[in-house]
Structures are given as structure tokens and as C-alpha cells.
Amino acid sequence: MSTTSLYISRPSPSQSSSRQSRGLRRPNLLLHAVRRGVCRPRVEQQSNAGGPSRRSVVQTAALASWLPPWMNNKQSSEAAPIKPRRFSSNDAKATGPTNEVVEVVNGMRHKRLGAGDIFVSELGLGTQRWGSADFNGPDLELCHKMMDLAVLENGVNLVDTAEQYPIPSDRARPEGLTEQIIGKWMAKEKGRREKLVISTKITGGRNVTPLNIRLDCEGSLKRLGTDYLDVYLLHWPARYTPQSNWGQSLMYHQGVEESPYYKGHASFEEIAEAMGSLIAEGKIRGWGMCNDNAYGLAGSCAAARALGVPPPVAMQNDFSLIDRRAEENGVSEASSPYNENVGFMGYNVLAGGVLTGKYRNEPAVPDDLDKERARKNYRNPRGRMDDLSWGGTLYRYRSGPALEAVETYAELAAEAGMSLTSMSQQWCRQRQGLTSALVGHTSME
Fold this sequence. Notes:
Helix content: 25-40%
Order of helices and strands: EHHEHHEEEEHEHEHEHEHEHHEHHHHE
Strand order of the largest sheet: 6-7-8-9-10-11-12-13
Largest sheet: 8 strands, parallel, barrel
Oligomer: single chain
Strand content: 5-15%
Number of helices: 15
């Protein structure tokens, strides 16, 4: 199989360093260059000489992952077709539409994430509170028990984490501890790494630079005790976007772009090029973004293709029965197999615990007008909604319309003979645009 990509001359390292030292960003002229014919297509071939190393397998899989299915099915007139090498032994599954069910493991469906051969379980482990200073943050022993149950017994392979986890952290439980907990589970037994698809994140905002993308990735690799990541995400965008406010308000304010915090932020091209380098080196298999929107997804894909590097394989945003914005704001359209063919991982699928029903009879502490009852629940919280800080951050799940919808859904669940929690998860399971639902656990119950 031939791999066709776009080539555009890049500045030398000395030129690039000079530009960065002066605070200059690469002009966003790549697409114009393509249209003017400045960018020339090139055809690259993978040599079949020798056996595949892990690095070469990662690189080959990555190159295959960014090509749409229809490009992979075409034969180039300039080069003989070469069969791609990949992690799985079934080469027929190397490319295809995102969200395609490729296999079932212990009753758990595994779906294609993006266009390539990264296959993730339809239920993933969300690890934000693993090892945290939260009142119910699970410790290392409990986290490992949850991984044993999910991964070894029930077909779950996706574990989503971040360099910034656990949240909340403190001096005794610092950021990065969650990755270490996962790494120690893998180190217990040979072959465990291959049972996981690890998705981790670089801290967003001004921290996102080409240099930090590399340095932070290497830090995550060290804490996890592995030599490659399956998916590497921006925790939130480098640029300003209201989506990175975790959904509190999606109104766009142009004036914020002039804030010193966002001036000189990394461009789509700089990010795509840095991620492409990590893929070429075999340090990551795919990349993407979290807490972003359709503009960020489309811009990232366009920049990557113009540079001739693999485009994103995943977008991760909040998504639930009472939070369907991804299906309405262009994200589902942009990520569709008919368009950018990018996977979608949903977090907060139980709406911060609201869809478990535990706040139905007694309101969350920030909303409760009964001060005595509020003090009782504050001292013995049922979940994050009873925390004044998190309760305020997650208010969107407790607005008047949201709570009214929860009551209606609870009635429907009762009529169907199932719990509100189960119905909420089953609803996510059958959404066409969702690749995997991330669920955060703090106990074995």
C-alpha cells in the first residue's frame, strides 16, 4: 500500500528556534499553499526488509490510521501496494470507519477509534480521582482491584488519565500519581500493557507548546512505565475557546482573545507537527483533543493533512443523557466517518452523579435551602455535588431544566424496570456518535 502525503518545506531548527525566541508563530498559510500548488504530493513506501520492531509497528500503524478508508482502498500507480504492519494480527481491520465494532471481548464491544487500528472498549475507566485527596478518592489497592475486575474479567481495555491527575491533589498525593498507579498495575504481570489502550493528556492552555508536548509526553511515559502511549490528548486547547470552560457558558467573547494569557498560543500547525513527530518516533499511536469543539477538530485535521502528518483520532468532551451538546453543536457532524472520521470519548456520562438519582430526594449542598440538612450532607458528602467548589463547577447538571429532565427519565427507567443509572449508561451505549463512555469509579459497588 502506498502512502500519499503532502510535503511543504519547513524552517531549519535554527530558524524555528529563532522564530520562537522572538515570539513569532508560523503563518497559517498551509491550506493556501495547497490550493496554489506549492505543496507537492509525495509517495512513501515501507520497506519489508527485516522483522518489525515495536517502533516500526507503531509508526506503520500510525501512518495507516490517518488515511480515510477510501484512500487505503485505492492502488497507487506510482508504487506497488504494501501490506501494513500493525499491532493486531488481523490486517483486514487496519482501517475503517470510526465507531465500527471490530470485536467483542467478554461481552464488551470494542470499537475503532478514528480511522486506524486503535480499538477501544465501549466503556472506559475514567481515573481523575484515582489516588486523589478527595473524600472518596480510591487508593492504589482499590484502583488495582477495579482494574482487575474491568480489564482482566470484563473486556474493558480503555483507561483514560492525564498528567494532571489526580484531582484534587495535595503534597502527599501530587499530580502524576494516577499515571503511576496505572503503571504499577501493568508492572505486576508481563503482558498487561498489551491489554490496555492508554489515553493520557498534556495540561492545556499556555502549557501547550511544541517543546512541552514532547517533554510532557516523556514524563507520562516514565510515570506509566511504558515506551508508548496509545492516545495523547490536549487536556484543553491552547487557544481561547469557551468549550474549555467545561461547559459553564459557551458564549464566545472575542475580547478574550486579546488576553495576554492567549497571545502567542501554539497554532494548529505547531501542535500537529509536534504530535506527528511523536508518532514517527513511535512514542504515541494517535492524538487528539479534549474540551474542544468542532472548529478545533476541523482545524486540527486540516493542519495535520496539510503538513503530511497523521490527523487526530479522538475528541473527548462531556456527554450524557442530559448533556447532548456534542450531537447538536457540530462535533458529531465533524467527527462522522463521512467527514473527519474521528472517534469520540464521552466523560461525565452520569452527569457528575446526578443521573444516579442520589440527589433527587435531597438537593445538592449548594442548592439546598434547608441549611441544617445542607450542613449534614456537607459533612458527609454523597458525591462531588455536595462539595461547594465542585458543586458550583458542575451546576450545569442541576439547572432547573436538567433536574426536571432527570425526574422524567427516572420515571421512564422505573417503568422499564431498570435503574436510572443503568438506563443512562445504556442510552450512551446506543448513541451512534459515541465511541466510548468514560465512567469514573470510586468503589467496587
